[in-house]
Specification:
Helix content: 10-25%
Shape: elongated
Structural class: alpha+beta
CATH class: Alpha Beta
Number of domains: 1
């Protein structure tokens, strides 16, 4: 099992969610976050310069079985891409154990 954490633009969340559902990743957690990055470039909107380093992002946490890792990463990469600074990051970690509380199932079966 793996845990995938992704930080994406809030504007791309709908397309990422659809892409994840399309590859049968139907359960994940997300929340709104704000972070600071290395990028010093700003964007100008109506004559006002906004920093791209501290714009709101959406943070996704996904635990999946090993056979879904590449499909999940590719779905996020394709659907979150804009080609602009600040598209986000993806991190992959080993997930040691998973439990479904209701049925007490463990491992891969607890993810379905």
């Amino acid at each position: 099992m793996k845990k995938i954490e992704a930080i994406i633009r809030k504007s791309k969340f709908s397309s990422v969610k659809e892409a994840l559902h399309a590859v049968d990743v139907n359960f994940f957690t997300y929340w709104d976050v704000t972070g600071v990055g290395n990028e010093k470039q700003g964007q100008v909107y109506r004559g006002v310069t906004y920093s791209t380093a501290d714009i709101q992002r959406r943070y996704l946490s996904i635990v999946i079985s090993d056979e879904f890792v590449e499909k999940t990463i590719n779905a996020i990469l394709e659907s979150a891409y804009s080609g602009e600074v600040g598209d986000g990051k993806i991190f992959v970690f080993p997930a040691e154990k998973a439990y479904r509380i209701r049925t007490k199932e463990t491992g891969k079966t607890s993810l379905n």
